[in-house]
Amino acid sequence: MNKPIVVMIILILIFAGCSTKSNDKANESINEHKLNIEAVEKENSELADKVQITHTNIVDKSKVKVGDRIAGLTVKSLEIRNSSLSDIIFSGRITVTGEYTKEVVDGSEAYIFVTDSKSAKKLPQLKDLANENSSFIIRNMDMANPAFKGSSKGNAAIVIDEFSIGEREISASAKIIEAIEVNPQKQNSGDKNSADLKNAFEGEWIVVEKVGSQNITAWDENDAKKYLGTILKVQKPTYITKDSAAYFEGYKMVPGDLKITEKEIQIIEESGGDDVFIIKDKDTLLAEKNGVFFKLKRKSSDNSKAGIRSSRFGFFIPVPANWTDRYTVEEADTGINVYFNPQKPAENQGVLFYINKKGTVEEGFLDNVKYFDFNGMTFVIGQPTDVSFDTEHPEFNIYCSMSREVTDIVQSLKPYYKEDIGNNEHSSEKDHE
User: Fold this and answer.
1) Distance between CA atoms of 312 and 29, rounded to whole angstroms?
2) pLDDT digits (tens, 9 = 90+) for 308-358
3) Confidence (pTM)
4) pLDDT at 228
5) Does pLDDT of 176 surpass 70?
6) Would you tell me how many other CB atoms lie within 10 Å of the CB of residue 167?
7) Strands 84-91 and 135-138
8) Do the strands 135-138 and 172-184 form a parallel or antiparallel pair, or are they unpaired?
9) Using the 8-state DSSP alphabet, how is residue 425 labeled?
10) Residues 6+ apart with CB under 8 A from 49
11) DSSP symbol at 116
12) What is the DSSP string of 138-150?
């Protein structure tokens, strides 16, 4: 055989063998890769059985589990009570935009944040409670107050964490991490520190009437009655505008329970004080005590009218203009005594009439006796049976004229600063039998 031909045959055989080995290795590599893919797919399938990953923000309470990823947040914990999903806490920070207001929730201040529709889609929502806008309460007020610059209302972009939802009264909450942008609402005539309101409500206010209460209160009717006539002081007030419905939701009430129809109410908070007042008008406030709401009137609101006031017992008696500067009032634990006040010196001040709690005065020594019931107490109105002023005094005739007017005057006795007397049993008057 020719030598060159032999060499060529040998080379062909060598290359053929190498090619076979290379193909074998390639096939092995392909098979190994297929096995890896199958293993990964199996692992992912097993993981999918354990963890739900969804890009929607709707939470299906029947399927949700710890570790699920929903709208980019991770389910951190679940709490189920009486077959209800009472709480889901998500971990992960998220930026939302919307409006904030400072409200009273369960007796304490808190910020309520209402997102716009775009941000609402970022936050998980329970399937049955999904809404175009999402609202939540901010739990950490120590961070919220400085973040919102102490303002009570405005627009903001904030970063939150530990977002929580559940089938409960306050459906959602979160912790604020930081405020990216805050635009407090401009102050108006109802906002705090307004020039028109500043100092306008400072002074003493008297509790005149119970106007409503929560379903469950710490006080009964007797406690509420005892509180009538109490003097409250407004000092160094701060004025804040609040949403009416949200404010009373904290008391589990609605504004209509107190005959409030306005969408917003104006609140007075005292610097360093515990009392919070609701402004009804320039001479009327509302205040809450142990779950009971009361109407308050300015102690001085009737100063322009001639009248006899008892701050201790809470009644008011209008008097004619001719009585101005011609009488004095002495108030004691048992009632009041009204005396003639002569303009010229006299040995004594003649008694015009008495008003005393029944049982504290000898009624046999009184003339023109009448009774009236007020604040759970019965009072006796009467005049002296004899002339108690010097008959020789030059103002004796004035004294006699005022004494004759007493019968008509006491007919107009009414609860202190209360507008509507009607047939209120606490202000009824009846002839002595």
Assistant:
1) 100
2) 877 777 777 888 777 877 888 888 888 889 999 888 888 877 899 999 998
3) 0.38
4) 77
5) yes
6) 18
7) unpaired
8) parallel
9) G
10) none
11) -
12) E--HHHHHHHTTT
d(CA 224, CA 211) in angstroms, rounded, equals: 10
For residue 107, count CB atoms less than 10 angstroms from its CB and return exposed for 0-12, middle for 13-18, buried for 19 or more: exposed
Contact 310, 331 (CB under 8 A): yes
Q: List the 366-374 sheet strands across, edge first.
A: 327-331, 335-340, 351-357, 377-384, 366-374, 429-431
Q: What is the DSSP string of 319-365?
A: --GGGTTSEEEEE-SSEEEEEE--SS--SSPPEEEEEEETTSS-GGG
The pLDDT of 89-106, averaged and rounded, is 87
Helix (H) or strand (E) holding 270: strand 264-270
Tokens of 192: 């705090």
The per-residue pLDDT for range 201-239, each reduced to its tens digit, is 888 888 878 889 988 888 888 888 778 778 888 887 888
Please give the single-letter amino acid code of residue 289: K
429 is written with which tokens? 């008057």
Rounded Cα distance between 384 and 399, Å, is: 13
Distance (Å, rounded) from C-alpha 308 to C-alpha 330?
Answer: 10
Cβ neighbours of 397 (radius 10 Å): 10
- Please report, for the chain, the start and end positions of each structural domain, with discontinuous segments joined by +: 69-184, 203-298, 307-431
pLDDT of the residue at 238: 82
Strand partners, 104: 109
Q: What is the mean pLDDT of the chain?
A: 76
Q: Rounded to whole angstroms, how far apart are CA atoms 297 and 230?
A: 11
On whether the CB atoms of residues 52 and 68 are closer than 8 A, the answer is yes
| Residue where the block lists tokens 């959602």 | 172
pLDDT at 410 over 50: yes
Predicted pLDDT at 85:
79
Contact, 115 vs 135, CB < 8 A? yes
Single-letter amino acid code for the residue at 203: G
Give the burial class of 57: count Cβ atoms within 10 A of its Cβ; 0-12 exposed, 13-18 middle, 19 or more buried. Answer: middle
Report the distance separating Cα 307 and Cα 51, nearest Å: 77
Q: Give the whole-angstrom CA distance, residue 371 versus residue 433.
A: 10
Token pair 């009361």 in the structure block, residue: 294
How far apart are alpha carbons 66 and 55 in whole angstroms?
A: 16
Strands 69-70 and 53-54: parallel
Q: Beta-carbon neighbour count of residue 165 at 10 Å?
A: 23
